[in-house]
Specification:
Elements: E1 2-7, H1 14-27, E2 33-39, H2 42-53, E3 61-65, E4 71-77, H3 79-89, H4 93-108, H5 116-133
Helix pairs in contact: 1-4, 3-4, 4-5
Length: 138
Amino acid sequence: MVKILLIPEQHPQQKNYQELIRSILSHLNISHGEMSISILNEQQIKSYNYRYRQVNSPTDVISFPSEIEGDWGDILICPEIIKENAKRFNINFTQELIRVIAHGILHLLGYNHDNRLNKSKMFKLQEEIVKNMGDWIL
């Protein structure tokens, strides 16, 4: 069974986010484990970005893989930055949200983009997920 904790728990799109995340996990053939996704504003994610990555600016996603078996870890996302990026890339918000959540999940699963080969593998799978999610509406 997959357990997803979405923070804040009373988010108005709670059910839609849960379904979206489960669809991404299904594409990756993942059926067991736990993870959390926190929805933050720009100032909050900027603070985490500085504290853990020493980057003093907001970002769209930060992942914190867990070393506990069965717990993948935590993902922080910022819808405000995702919306800005979607506008900049001339795509819809949901498509960019799928990309960002997939990116975060791949980091939790051990993928990274620290060199050209790893980046190629990770981004290929990320874009495959985006493509296969089709016209998902959030």
